[in-house]
Design goal:
Blueprint (H helix, E strand, L loop, with lengths): L6 H6 L30 H7 L20 E3 H6 L1 H7 L2 E4 L2 E5 H4 L3 E3 L8 E5 L1 E3 H9 L3 E4 L4 E2 L1
Parallel strand pairs: 1-4, 3-5, 4-6, 5-7, 6-8
Antiparallel strand pairs: 2-3
Length: about 150
Amino acid sequence: MVRVVREKTKKLRGGSYGRGHKAGRGKGKRGGKGMAGLGKHRWIWMLINMPDHYGVHGFTRHAQKVDVRSINVGDIDRTSNRLIESGIAQVEEDKVRVDLEKMGYSVLLGGGQVGRPFIIKVGKATGKAIEKIKSAGGEVETNGGDKEE
């Protein structure tokens, strides 16, 4: 018995049923995988849906931020009466003893004028600050003898 095959079926055998050779193989005409073509044939899609795709946006800080609080000698002199009244500073032998580390300061700067002798304990002090305190008859105690220039 001779089998009769319809013409359309016979025409499509071995082909891809009218979709082109690559398009008929399961994945369709998708234009690449993933982000392929964003700079070419998917450019408009990228502009609409991912406008920040290209370019540099911000930065990442890898270093640890160090919190350095500083105070000027003029600020200490100006607020010395208030510090004594609140008990933060003590008067010893006509000198005002101030512990800046307990107050949360780590650096003593040389801005301002000093009108009375101070004994100041601090982590670091600038040369100008030490000079101003010593010229007023006081002294500066730094941790480990650190002195900023």
